[in-house]
């Protein structure tokens, strides 16, 4: 896991480096004091996490994070700051965490453990074997190997994706769009911005409001919506 630190106070930067090096396996690849320099760096270099102060020269941390949030592959943002008042704004752009100065050792260590666990979770979850048709999902802190043919539908829930089989619910710590990219398109269709459906599990196609559909699935009492913007593609797939 590769990280950069963006902090213009030398002592604060050194303290943070100490915790990262001694309490995690995260690799610090560079350090910055200026927001514009960070933006230039991450446009050419891929990192997994940015430890970001808010009060930095050229481009403050919040504006920098807003720019980064538009990247196709977004690193985790951990704000490290003395300013409480930006917390709401930080989480609106889906910051991973918001740590206040002066640092609490237990708080920093807890954040680092959570960060590594989330990163590992995400990478394991996205790894599947196309030959065996298996995919790794999570349930009760365990990795469960699931046959993709057993998946009925998936639903977005905040920053994770819930995956449903006939009897079980699992999760993956990625967006529903990222998870959709790991699934075979001959069986799975993203019917709505918050839903993926296994088209082999559709039992009934029910006309709904505004020329949309609801999809009633086999064996389970649940209906998956098809949004208006996806109707044309859905009709082509289903030969309607």
Automatic annotation (TrEMBL):
GO MF, one example: DNA binding
- Kindly state which keywords UniProt assigns to this record, in alphabetical order: Cytoplasm, DNA-binding, Phosphoprotein, Transcription, Transcription regulation, Two-component regulatory system
Give a short account of what the protein does.
Answer: May play the central regulatory role in sporulation. It may be an element of the effector pathway responsible for the activation of sporulation genes in response to nutritional stress. Spo0A may act in concert with spo0H (a sigma factor) to control the expression of some genes that are critical to the sporulation process.
The keyword DNA-binding is annotated on this UniProt entry: yes
- Protein name (Swiss-Prot/TrEMBL): Stage 0 sporulation protein A homolog
According to the entry, every stretch annotated as the HTH LytTR-type domain falls at: 135-240
Q: Which SMART domains does the annotation name?
A: LytTR, REC
Instruction: Give the GO cellular component terms, alphabetically.
Output: cytoplasm
Query: Per its UniProt record, what InterPro entries does this chain match?
Result: CheY-like_superfamily, LytR-like, LytTR_DNA-bd_dom, Sig_transdc_resp-reg_receiver
Could you tell me which SUPFAM superfamilies the record lists for this protein?
Answer: CheY-like
- Principal place where this protein is found? cytoplasm
What compartments host this protein? Cytoplasm
User: Secretion signal: which residues?
Assistant: none
